[in-house]
Amino acid sequence: MERLGIGHVFGMPGAHVLPVYDALHGSTKLRSVLVKHEQGASFMAGGLARATGNIGACLTTAGPGATNLVTGIANAMADKLPLLVITGETSTWIFGRGGLQESSGEGGALDQTDLFRAITRYHRIVERTDYLPQVLNQAARTLLSANPGPVLLSFPYNIQKELVDAEILDGIAFGASGGRTACGLSASAAELADLIAAARYPVIVAGHGCIAAGAQEELAQASELLGIPVATTLKGKGVLAESSPLSLGCLGVTSDGHAYRYIVDHADLVIFIGTGFNERTSYLWDSKLLAGKKVVQVDSEADQLEKVFRANLAVLGDARDMLGALLAVARSEAMPRKALDKLAEATGARRVAERFRPIEHLLAGIAERYAGNAMIFDDNIIVAQSYLKASPGIRYYPNSGISSLGHALPAAIGARFARSAPTFAILGDGGFQMCCMELMTAVNYGIPVNVVLINNGTMGLIRKNQFQLYGGRYIDCDFRNPDYALLAQSFGIRHWRIEAEADVDALFAAADLEREINLIEVMWDKNAFPSYLSDR
Hints:
CATH topology of the largest domain: Rossmann fold
CATH superfamily of the largest domain: Thiamin diphosphate (ThDP)-binding fold, Pyr/PP domains
Shape: globular
Distance between the termini: 49 Å
CATH architecture of the largest domain: 3-Layer(aba) Sandwich
Number of strands: 18
């Protein structure tokens, strides 16, 4: 872990993993972080990986310690995050004999390999030390590859206590593998330039691949030079500053619909860069989005190309390289800028309903004050997708992956361990109660984080769907909340209650949102549904 550059390992000790914890006691490079629940550990490790690009790590005991990690590991698998998971296991001489918390798969015991096979890129129970070099080498290669994912290594108790020669590490490749390539992009860029020249209203749809490639500057330059509006996916939100007149905002089923309408009504060329055409982005693969238009797709992963649509031009390549090659062609050929006569309506001032103004005012204030450096982890994507003006400086991390509620708070805490920036976690009251005890992890380690808690006493998305699709037959969506002011007091943190825009102004005037832990409770009518889905 030290040689992989890991600085923090999140977890919870148990009897079957104490030898590893005892070894951590002497490390000057690795800091162990005690969480309140193992799921919090995997979310924190994933949050660190998302915010830094470095390997996140978590450490738990056998049995429930390992199984409690499942949701966080699955989330990391879906988001292709480098996550190293170390779990304990019963001693090998117990295998098949009914040991407590055994998961060897022997003698009717829980089979950990089967459990984690579908949500890890590499998984091994290390039953002997003689093949440890091969295991560690494969683990390092997987974590450092251009297409990483979770790696889980389980060590039986007796194996943890064996001595191994430290020189085995010298044969392991700890350098990053893979990398960007610009091979063949010049011809593709020239073909793309021809398609743009022939189009009247081209649109770029930029995804997380642009962020991963560090293509923010190239995207902004290409958009401005050629006069091409940019819509983003949810995970790509902020790759182009949403304050830009060329920004169409988010394209997606939970967005305000402006990008959707512009593409459907005006676009004749849609250029997908670093994005798939998933359920959210495509409005459940609405045929009107691409009907009668030419389509270009640029992606660094071959299996993403033309996965759900046919493209007039499909390019396997890095987003930054491709945009750089396009800029070179555009400048050398002095390509004219496109007319933007249809853009004003899509990018003009957007009316915010009175009941949504406090949250809009809060998110606008965050975007204005911390435009150059902030992290926002978001469970409640509907609110931020419509009202947060993200930018390259505001790193926005939506509830993607497997879209697990309760993710934002532990993920934000994990990220804040490794990156110093004002940090916000946006959650509904339902999701918050899945993870709220991890606030004490932040308190215990002095990790400043701001929780924006939307209090409407309901599972908002479920209530909206039951209202729109099931005739208002509400079941298992409403609940009573605790007194969050008292809860914050019990944690020893600051509490702020937002009911009006004036409360937001008071918050910014008095709260320390950079160095303290704050619980910001935003009151919300349970029947106030932001407009999306069938409302477009």
